[in-house]
Design goal:
The protein has about 210 residues and is mainly beta. It has a single domain, classed as Porin, CATH 2.40.160. About 10% of the residues lie in helices and about 60% in strands. The protein is built from one helix and ten strands. The strands form two sheets. Strands 1-2-3-4-5-8-9-10 form an eight-stranded antiparallel β-barrel. The chain has a two-stranded antiparallel ribbon with strand order 6-7. About 5% of the residues have low confidence.
Length: about 210
């Protein structure tokens, strides 16, 4: 019986001490305002650019996938919307028939991004437009020498991805992007429009700024 009374007394003392400690803690309204904010991201990625559709993506006579790299910088408008500038570079799309024929594709243009944070995962969708510059070095096929060529065309991109916390405040994620080039026509070929599906791993580095 004495043990039971002692246990009840200790429990009452613990509850009283806890209530006094909680009363001394600051409320949310008493916490200081954050002095820094997330201004945007700098992103770099690499992966594969896979042609599909039309003569460009033909499995017998079209062009093969190429390594692709990208760089981007974005500025946040709010927690949902951001905008920025992005570049991508496909190293070499080799023709499936004429092995010495290869195309390099460089693009640059603005984009808008919508992001949604769920737990630690960041989901986003991207819509972009820009200028696509392609180049074709000189090559020989069937004993005939073909000169180098280049050209440019407007295009657009659409896609999205998901990113996870990685290392030192960075995010690492999977990015899927459809790129559409309106016209790829040169002196050695005429591909009309061309479509690529870019599959990349992308590293995002957050840029923080002090509040004024």
């Amino acid at each position: 019986m004495r043990g039971l009374l002692l246990a009840v007394g200790l429990l009452a003392c613990a509850r009283t001490a806890g209530a006094q400690g909680a009363a001394g803690l600051p409320g949310l309204e008493d916490l200081p305002e954050p002095t820094r904010y997330l201004a945007g991201y700098v992103s770099a990625g690499g992966g594969w650019a896979v042609p599909f559709g039309g003569h460009w993506g033909d499995k017998d006579a079209g062009f093969k996938p190429s390594n692709v790299f990208s760089l981007a910088a974005s500025k946040r408008v709010d927690e949902l919307l951001s905008y920025g500038l992005e570049t991508s570079y496909s190293l070499r799309h080799e023709n499936r028939v004429m092995k010495d024929l290869g195309l390099k594709v460089f693009s640059m243009g603005p984009f808008a991004k919508v992001s949604y944070l769920e737990g630690e995962k960041l989901f986003y969708g991207v819509l972009g437009a820009g200028l696509y510059q392609w180049s074709q070095p000189a090559f020989t096929s069937g004993g005939t020498r073909y000169g180098s060529d280049s050209g440019s065309s407007a295009g657009l991109s659409l896609g999205g991805g998901v990113a996870y916390p990685f290392w030192w405040g960075t995010l690492l994620g999977l990015d899927l992007r459809w790129h559409h080039i309106f016209n790829m026509k040169g002196s050695n070929f005429n591909l009309d429009s061309a479509d690529n599906l870019n599959v990349m791993l992308v590293l995002h580095y957050g840029v923080w700024k002090d509040k004024k």
